[in-house]
Amino acid sequence: MSVAIDGPDFVALQVRDVDAAAAFCEQHLGLRRAAVSPPHAVVFDTRPTPFAIRALLPGVDLADAARPGLGVVLWFRTPDAHRLHDQLVAAGVTILTPMASSPFGPMFSFEGPEGYTLTAHGG
To answer: Is the pLDDT of residue 66 over 90?
Structure first.
């Protein structure tokens, strides 16, 4: 009998500046830090899947990456995608794809910490 995986149960973005990336997540996305994080990361109290910002792993150099995470799509649920969109626009955060309908409710993509593309949906 083979063993299967259930799906992602932890997501982390590797960044050059953990403090700046964590501040972006707190200030613009309203994420709150978990009670405990390892010294090289900031883990947020997100559900159902924990999300973190972490220092680069050995051998990872993002200096030449035009857009970190190219090919990976991260979606975050929010109770009000339209309101979050407006908050991010007012804060000067770059919107990468305009608000649109999706099977998961209204959605849009924006530039997150260090150029990662993040998508918000819901509401």
So the answer is: no
Q: How far apart are CA 68 and CA 87, in angstroms?
A: 24
Q: Is the pLDDT of residue 97 over 90?
A: yes
What tokens appear for 87 in the block? 């908050």
Q: Residue 106: what are its φ and ψ, rounded to 5°? A: -60, 145
Tokens representing residue 17 in the block: 């500046």
How many other CB atoms are found less than 10 A from the CB of residue 71? 5
The CA-based diameter of the chain, rounded to the nearest angstrom, is: 54
* Nearest partner of 114 among 30, 33, 41, 17, judged by Cα: 17
d(CA 59, CA 26): 28
pTM, full prediction:
0.91
76 and 119 Cβ atoms separated by less than 8 Å: yes
Indicate whether 62 pLDDT > 90. no
Q: Measured between alpha carbons, how far is residue 42 from residues 51, 95, 109 in Å?
A: 9, 24, 23
Interatomic CA distance for residues 104 and 100, integer angstroms: 11
Hey, what amino acid is at 15?
V
Q: How far apart (Å, rounded) are the C-alpha atoms in residues 71 and 14?
A: 15
